[in-house]
Specification:
Layout: H1 3-24, E1 46-47, E2 54-58, E3 76-77, E4 79-81, E5 97-101, E6 121-122, E7 129-131, E8 134-139, E9 144-150, E10 154-161, E11 165-172, E12 180-188, E13 193-202, E14 205-215, E15 221-226, E16 229-232, E17 236-239, E18 242-250, E19 255-263, H2 267-277, H3 283-298, E20 301-304, H4 308-321, E21 326-327, E22 334-337, E23 340-343, E24 349-350, H5 354-357, H6 361-368, H7 370-385, E25 395-396, E26 399-400, H8 410-418, H9 426-438, H10 452-458, H11 468-488, H12 492-501, E27 509-510, E28 515-516, H13 533-539, H14 545-549, H15 556-563, H16 566-578, E29 594-595, E30 598-599, H17 618-632, H18 648-658, E31 660-661, E32 669-672, E33 679-683, E34 689-695, E35 703-709, E36 712-713, E37 718-720, H19 721-725, E38 728-735, E39 770-771, E40 777-778, E41 782-784, E42 786-787, E43 794-798, E44 809-810, E45 815-817, E46 821-828, E47 838-844, E48 857-860, E49 891-894, E50 898-919, E51 930-936, E52 943-949, H20 954-957, E53 961-982, E54 999-1007
Parallel strand pairs: 34-38, 40-47
Antiparallel strand pairs: 1-2, 2-4, 3-6, 5-11, 7-8, 8-9, 9-10, 10-19, 11-18, 12-13, 12-17, 13-14, 14-19, 15-16, 15-18, 20-33, 21-24, 22-23, 25-26, 27-28, 29-30, 31-32, 32-37, 33-34, 35-36, 35-38, 39-42, 41-45, 43-44, 43-46, 46-47, 48-50, 49-54, 50-53, 50-54, 51-52, 51-53
């Protein structure tokens, strides 16, 4: 070999090694601490991509910020548990906690105020280290170093003592993050192995998690405990509060390694998982393997240029995007789902937060993670084709908790099927999504009934139900997805039907407001104040009227036509982003990250910056996308403006930083935004590369001047999925000023338009009759006047609670009632379906029109939180709360009693007081335990004029209900009324919130 050949070989070897080093170093850009502060709700512990185990430091659920079990504000650790949800807005899991200690064995965790009272320990962030697949921390109280890593189904611990001696390990299966413990069990199997289980109820349903733990050192002592009672030397125990401990003796420089395998099926599965994944491997072996898996994921997208901080933000977003969904099947294919065990010939996954992730995360997977996408879609499809439970709304650990709305799993399933991803059966997908679109089940405890019975008959969810606009627009989009797949499969009639269903939002468009409003079945609009959050929350899910009025991703051009064309549409968007008027009251916890009325902190609005492309003003998309990136994402622990929602917030950033975004998953298009990095290489699974280059300092110069694709000029403001998957070079020339000629011509703008044969194929339904007088409280007598907005309709009614029909009393003229009365009415018209039933209660109560101005005046001794006006005025606004806690009428107290004083301004006679309350324990709202009514003439001496105490059974509390407690007494003169409503108290053991105080919701105080 000559010297030139040798030098050539050496040169390429160096280049290859440099590439390897650069590639291996990508993991160094990931900081799992990002999102652990603020309201990001991420966790810092060890996991592998899409794994069953998320081994992380864990604390008790203290408030909403501890949904993942950890918050950056922590200075105390309870231990290290094996399951956590990444970035969710709900709390759950925290399975099987281990904690190393030294000294006297304590099985009680103690308190954060006094960690020495139990096995908790102080720690410092300075001693924490967190990278993908690895976490370590020093427990200050014990001077023990904890290191964690994981395989898919096994958590691996390594504990190092500062000096030789005996190390205790506490095994606590009772630990949970807002779950109810039904039963736990522990068993010492040998002097190096231990197993146990945790049976619980919570967001993951009534589930059991089994564990099998193997220790690297034999036990010198062990025991079990029931509560705080330690039974040294005992090997097994079952109960509601059982724990175990072992002691191992370590020499100088010795460590204790523990392998903890999980299964949701049984002990056999847990042991098999351990043997298959980590048997014979050391901690360092598993750590290296975990980190290599993360390197493989991170290398799917390689960015260069921009700052180190931007790279940390980007690669941490990648990391968060590949944590979920999570594996739930054992190595033998068995898995637990909705209370039963099934066998699968492919990996089964759960933790499907598809209401969030269909928007960006799932489309990202269709580009860079197609093999897993097939497994995710097949898992979802099997819920209908194999297990017959139907598509989930929000599936956590194999249980659909239905915490959101609609049938959002349709979008990622259809999007993947339309993209011809290998391993997906489009016919099976279609069967599952069509069934979901026809189901009348799946009601959310958070957002009222789903309204599908109305939707299928009327084309929209009516304003009688809360969050009606959100339900309508989202279901419209899902229906469009189904229509697209039906068309692909040649199902023309279905394609037409679902296309027509997909434009139901037009029924809710108010031309005078240029917004989507809730509409009642009477044909009337549901009015609301746009400057009060309570009104908005009642109509829109985790979003607002501005975001949901724009959520028609499949028919943007149709919405544009309603608003008045492309220029008016662009101005309409401008007005939203520039509207800085204030809104009173408490925002929903998931709405944040505002630019005007655009809220980036939750998903319904996240497509909006890209809508300017449809209007031919793409430079405004470029501005807004960059504004969102710079204001709401950074590389610090509070670097996410809201909870990451299992990777959706992160996926939005990934797409936007690369320069394109899927506004409408399923339509095969991606809107071009403004690339942040000088170069992005997407390594596709088909062996090709999609390369994006941005010249002229894209971090500083945000505006696109021109674009080429594979060397040819490219003027369209969107890309297609086919272009990306074919690989190629997309090159941007960037500048400091907008180029208002690029991407603006009609042929360069994206088209999003639903074409239907008929405006509405749905059968015509008679409008519901109603009483125009909205007064809900009357004094002495009330005249009922019913009308119907359908011409020549006949109205029939009942006053005894029965459902009316054509044989009921026919309404001919107004009639008078004198007492609290429940009216039900129905309307019939020739050639149309009968109306829905009008159901209204008229409450007899004093209206106080004869009092001086400003009276009655209510003074709150205890203040409501988040729900209701802090001044208590909603308690006496003559509007009675419905069965939905977020209807904007209830006044909510978080763990507190309600104490209020009412001043009538003068002495009046009363003989009756009634107070309404709500119970909905699914969302932790419990009924009050007592009420006391006191009266006074001078605001000094008060006399009890009514009091009641009560208690409800578990069976009664498991279903939601509204009740009105009435106090009748001898008529007397009073000026002041003091009302005390006592909180339920400590939530009982059968509930997931056991040990805490629940919410109490009160409305309306009626006085006669």
């Amino acid at each position: 070999m000559n010297i030139k050949s040798l030098l050539t070989i050496i040169f390429f070897a160096v280049i290859f090694c440099a590439c390897e080093r650069e590639s291996a170093n990508l993991i160094g850009y990931v900081d799992p601490m990002i999102g652990t502060d603020g309201i990001g709700h991420t966790f810092p512990g060890a996991t592998v991509p899409f794994g069953m185990v998320q081994l992380s430091p864990s604390n008790d659920f203290k408030s909403w910020n501890w949904c993942s079990g950890y918050h950056y504000s922590d200075t105390i650790l309870k231990g290290f548990a094996h399951t956590h949800i990444s970035g969710a807005g709900l709390a759950g899991l925290g399975d099987i906690l281990l904690m190393p200690t030294v000294g006297v064995v304590q099985l009680n965790p103690g308190t954060e105020d006094d960690p020495a009272s139990g096995y908790r320990s102080r720690f410092s962030h300075k001693s924490e280290k967190s990278t993908p697949g690895y976490y370590s921390v020093l427990l200050d109280d014990y001077n023990v170093k904890v290191e964690l890593t994981a395989s898919e189904r096994v958590g691996f611990h390594r504990y190092t003592m500062s000096k030789p001696g005996v190390l205790n390990v506490i095994i606590d299966p009772t630990h949970n993050i807002m779950e109810r413990i039904v039963e736990t069990g522990v068993e010492i199997v040998s002097n190096t192995t231990l197993r146990g289980f945790k049976r619980c109820e919570g967001e993951g349903g009534a589930r059991t998690v089994y564990f099998y733990a193997k220790f690297s050192k034999p036990f010198v002592s062990y025991g079990v405990a029931k509560g705080d009672s330690i039974m040294e030397g005992e090997k097994r125990l079952k109960g509601t509060n059982t724990k175990a401990y072992i002691q191992a003796k370590l020499k100088h420089d010795e460590v204790l390694e523990i392998q903890v395998a999980l299964s949701f099926v049984g002990y056999q599965g847990a042991k098999a998982n351990l043997n298959a994944e980590v048997q014979g491997k050391s901690f360092d072996d598993v750590k290296r393997l975990a980190q290599s898996k993360w390197e493989e994921k991170l290398n799917k997208m390689i960015v260069t240029g921009s700052s180190q901080a931007d790279k940390r933000t980007f690669y941490t977003a990648m990391y968060h995007s590949f944590i979920s969904p999570n594996l739930i099947s054992d190595v033998d294919g068995r898995y637990w789902l909705e209370g039963k065990v099934y066998q699968s010939d492919f990996p089964q996954y759960s933790n499907f937060s598809t209401w969030d992730t269909f928007r960006a995360l799932n489309p990202l997977f269709t580009i860079v993670e197609q093999e897993k996408t097939a497994e995710f879609v097949n898992s979802l499809a099997s819920r209908y084709t194999e297990t017959k439970v139907g598509l989930p709304v929000w599936e956590c650990m194999g249980h659909d908790n239905v915490c959101m709305i609609g049938y959002s799993a349709v979008s990622p399933m259809v999007d993947a099927a339309l993209k011809n991803i290998k391993g997906i059966q489009p016919e099976e997908v279609y069967e599952a999504v069509k069934a979901a679109a026809m189901s009348l089940e799946k009601h959310s405890p958070n957002y009222d009934k789903n309204g599908m019975d109305y939707y299928l008959k009327m084309g929209y969810v009516p304003g009688e139900l809360n969050c009606a606009v959100s339900k309508t627009t989202e279901q419209n989009y899902y229906d469009w997805c189904i229509s697209a797949l039906a068309d692909r499969l040649g199902k023309k009639d279905d394609a037409a039907l679902f296309a027509e269903r997909s434009v139901g939002y037009k029924n809710l468009y108010r031309s005078d407001k240029k917004r989507l409003y809730s509409k009642y079945t009477t044909g009337e609009w549901r009015e609301m104040k746009l400057n009060v959050w309570d009104d908005l929350i009642a109509n829109y899910v985790s979003g607002n009227i501005w975001g949901y009025s724009a959520f028609v991703p499949h028919d943007v051009n149709g919405l544009m036509e309603l608003i008045g064309g492309k220029d008016e549409f662009a101005k309409w968007l401008d007005d939203i982003f520039l509207d800085t008027t204030s809104i009173d009251g408490h925002t929903h916890v998931d709405i944040s990250g505002f630019i005007g009325k655009y809220g980036h902190g939750d998903e319904p609005s996240q497509h909006m910056p890209y809508l300017y492309n449809y209007a031919g003003q793409p430079w405004k998309t470029q501005e807004r996308v960059r504004q969102v990136i710079s204001e709401f994402y950074h590389d610090k622990p509070d670097g996410l403006v809201n909870n990451d929602d299992l990777g959706q917030m992160s996926a939005w950033y990934l797409f936007s930083a690369m320069g394109f975004y899927p506004v409408c998953p399923g339509d095969m298009k991606y809107m071009i935004g403004s690339p942040l990095f000088k170069k992005v290489v997407i390594n596709l699974e088909n062996g090709k590369q999609w390369i994006i280059k941005a010249n002229n300092d894209p971090k500083k110069n945000i505006y696109i001047q021109s674009v080429t694709l594979n060397g040819e000029p490219y003027t369209k403001s969107y890309l297609t999925h086919e272009q990306i998957m074919n690989g190629g070079n997309l090159v941007f020339e960037m500048g400091a000023a907008p180029n208002k000629k690029w991407g603006v011509l009609p042929e360069d703008r994206p088209i999003s338009k639903v074409h239907t044969e008929k405006a509405n194929r749905l059968p015509q339904i008679t409008h519901k009759p109603f009483d125009k007088d909205r007064s809900e409280v009357f004094e002495e007598a009330y005249q009922v006047k019913l009308v119907c907005n359908t011409e020549k309709a006949d109205i029939y009614y009942t006053l005894n609670g029965d459902i009316p029909h054509k044989n009921s009393k026919r309404y001919k003229k107004p009639f008078v009632i004198h007492k609290t009365t429940n009216l039900k009415a129905i309307a019939y018209a020739d050639g149309m379906q009968p109306s829905f039933v009008y159901d209204r209660t008229y409450y007899a109560g004093r209206r106080f029109g004869d009092l001086k101005d400003g009276f009655p005046r209510i003074t709150m001794i205890t203040r409501p939180k988040k729900f209701g006006d802090s001044d208590g005025n909603m308690l006496m606004d003559l509007k009675v709360g419905s069965g939905s806690f977020n209807d904007g009428r209830w006044t909510g107290f978080d763990g507190e009693d309600m104490v209020a004083t009412i001043d009538f301004g003068q002495a009046i006679s009363i003989d009756n007081v009634s107070i309404g309350y709500l119970s909905n324990t699914a969302v932790w709202i419990f009924p009050p335990s007592a009420m006391v009514i006191r009266a006074s003439l001078d605001d000094d001496k008060y006399e009890i004029i009514g009091s009641k105490k009560w208690r409800f059974s578990q069976e009664e509390l498991e279903g939601p209900f509204v009740k009105r407690e009435e106090f009748t007494f001898k008529s007397q003169k009073i000026r002041y009324l003091n009302i005390e409503v006592s909180n339920y108290g400590i939530v009982p053991d059968w509930h997931a919130a056991a040990g805490h105080k629940g919410w109490m919701f009160v409305d309306e105080i009626l006085i006669n």
